Amino acid sequence: MADEIRNRLEAQSFPDLGTMMEAYARAAAERGRKEFQQKLDFTSDSIDGLDEILVQVGESPELDLEFEVRLWGSYLGEVLRRRYAGQWEMTVYPGGVASVPAIDVRGSRLFPLVKVYRRLTMGEEEDLRSFYAMVAERLGKPAQIN
Description:
3 strands; 3-stranded antiparallel beta sheet; Four Helix Bundle (Hemerythrin (Met), subunit A)
């Protein structure tokens, strides 16, 4: 299933970063439902399911780290972007040299793909539940969407 989704996404051209990240996030939700039996509905409640998926993905001997980070990091980013009315942007990770997709929320930058990378490569100490709780505490109430 991962190969089918990767091929479908990589065959598309996207007009901008936000559109691309939304497409990857929707594909992650689809794969989460079909392959992992997790309801990824872009709510804060789905973060636990996403974390469980990452545990399983990280154990795969055929792990395509770059693709999995892009797929699941896009989903995490979309949950945050929607909750806090943020915007996707390319920006340099602090201390890094390359630009990576980030979410800008009222001047704060969140790096969901970096977080997913760390979760997949470093394990439980980088769990998403704690990360999401910290972000929610720092950013406060969700944006009001009319």
